[in-house]
């Protein structure tokens, strides 16, 4: 599909002038008040678990169900997850916001955890929804969860379940290696520090639980996400190192195989995303993927000028899912 014309795209408030402020303000200061979820623990095929937060008011078969996948070290309680949940519930959807392994507040039981390409876990979540009666599924993913969602769709290709209707992904590191290098820059040190605080705490807990899995002394030397992926993410999940992990799991390589109408929205000023994650020149080659590249928005930001409780990204997702989008092609 062609690139979506950004002419009528997102515009930031004047007091959020660049990508960092547009990313940080919604994350820290936006508070979404919403009903408590019904939490269910899904036991996975390897004996581990993920926790599911359901927002439903009747049988799954009676309404479309949206499955939301959060970002790196996020959870089902992230403001961008709750915001989209609230928006789509008001439009008559059931919503399932799931937590990746170790992201619901409790360490998972296996040595492995989650990562950008762990589509086997998303597959089990989707199959659990089908078994419980879901007849019409929509998918949404943010950042790492967006990469995961797109990779799953690409892996399925023409063999995707027929009940998958549409998907949307925001702020996606489509090319993991170059995004890792972008995050390692000095100006992005705040994000790296924040991620590593919780990632290393979990890795240290795993090291204590699984002696020999990693030398705790090595963990104390890790300063970047790539170093973490070299020592932990790659080896613990069957990859040679960070670069092997990045190359095998970058959703950029799976977009051409997607057979479900899918919207990908990446801001050009996103501090996390490299130029490779803004592939305007490739958009015409994708039959079912629409690419929107607004000039502003930051990372999972998109706080609008006249904020009334809904982000621009949530409005875009709602329009996309309900066929209310006005698409102007370049």
TrEMBL record:
Molecular-function annotations in GO: monoacylglycerol lipase activity; short-chain carboxylesterase activity
AB hydrolase-1 domain: residues covered: 64-303
InterPro entries linked: AB_hydrolase_1, AB_hydrolase_4_CS, AB_hydrolase_4_sf, AB_hydrolase_fold, ABHD4
Tagged with keyword Translocase: no
Keywords annotated in UniProt: Hydrolase, Serine esterase
Active site: 143 (charge relay system), 270 (charge relay system), 299 (charge relay system)
Family label: Belongs to the AB hydrolase superfamily. AB hydrolase 4 family.
Protein name stated in the entry: Alpha/beta fold hydrolase
């Amino acid at each position: 599909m062609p690139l979506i014309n950004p002419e009528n795209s997102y515009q930031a408030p004047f007091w959020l002038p660049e990508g960092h402020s547009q990313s940080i303000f919604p994350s820290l200061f936006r508070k979404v008040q919403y009903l408590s979820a019904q939490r269910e623990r899904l036991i996975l095929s390897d004996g581990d678990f993920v926790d599911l937060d359901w927002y439903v008011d009747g049988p799954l078969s009676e309404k479309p169900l949206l499955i939301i996948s959060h970002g790196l070290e996020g959870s089902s309680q992230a403001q961008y997850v709750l915001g989209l949940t609230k928006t789509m519930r008001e439009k008559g959807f059931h919503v399932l916001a799931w937590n990746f392994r170790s992201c619901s507040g409790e360490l998972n039981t296996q040595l492995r955890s989650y990562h950008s390409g762990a589509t086997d876990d998303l597959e089990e979540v989707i199959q659990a929804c089908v078994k419980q009666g879901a007849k019409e599924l929509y998918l949404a993913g943010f950042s790492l969860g967006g990469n995961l969602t797109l990779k799953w769709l690409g892996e399925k290709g023409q063999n995707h379940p027929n009940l998958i209707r549409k998907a949307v992904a925001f702020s996606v590191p489509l090319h993991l290696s170059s995004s890792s290098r972008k995050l390692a820059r000095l100006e992005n040190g705040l994000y790296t520090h924040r991620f590593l605080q919780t990632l290393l705490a979990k890795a240290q807990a795993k090291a204590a639980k699984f002696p020999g899995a990693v030398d705790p002394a090595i963990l104390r030397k890790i300063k970047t996400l790539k170093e973490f992926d070299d020592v932990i993410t790659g080896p613990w999940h069957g990859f040679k190192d960070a670069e092997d992990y990045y190359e095998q799991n970058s959703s950029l390589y799976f977009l051409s195989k997607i057979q479900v109408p899918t919207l990908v929205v990446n801001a050009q000023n996103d501090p996390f995303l490299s130029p490779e994650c803004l592939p305007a020149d490739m958009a015409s080659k994708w039959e079912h993927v629409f690419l929107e590249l607004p000039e502003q928005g930051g990372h999972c930001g998109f706080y609008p000028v006249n904020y009334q409780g809904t982000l621009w990204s949530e409005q875009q997702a709602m329009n996309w899912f309900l066929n209310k989008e006005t698409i102007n092609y370049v």
